[in-house]
Amino acid sequence: MTDLAISLPEETVATLREKALAYGVRAEDLMRAGIDRLLASPEEDFEEAVDYVLERNEELYRRLA
């Protein structure tokens, strides 16, 4: 495993620690879970965004075609 150091604003760290305490986990574990979730589903989120934009602007695209 490789260590990675990042800088976060104090208010973000405070919120992270509060959330971790509420879930009963370490702040590091909560961050890792968030990163794992992001890396596992970026394509799904992107596709949802594309579908939304296409649906929202369908009439405009039809007129421009």
Structural description of this entry:
The chain is mainly alpha-helical and 65 residues long. The protein has one domain. The chain has helices spanning 10-23, 27-40, 42-56, 58-64. α1 packs across α2 (27-40). The mean pLDDT is 88.
Keywords:
77% helix; mainly alpha
Distance between the termini: 51 Å
Principal-axes shape call: elongated
Main sheet specs: none
Helix content: over 70%
Q: Based on helices, strands and strand pairing, what is the structural class?
A: mainly alpha
Percent of sequence in beta strands: under 5%
**Topology, number of strands:** 0
The overall pLDDT average reads 88
How many distinct helices? 4
Low-confidence stretches: none
- What string, H for helix and E for strand, traces the elements in order? HHHH
Total separate domains = 1
Any idea what the radius of gyration is?
19 Å
Briefly characterize the structure.
The protein has 65 residues and is mostly helical.
How do the helices and strands line up, and which of them pair or pack?
Layout: H1 10-23, H2 27-40, H3 42-56, H4 58-64
Helix pairs in contact: 1-2
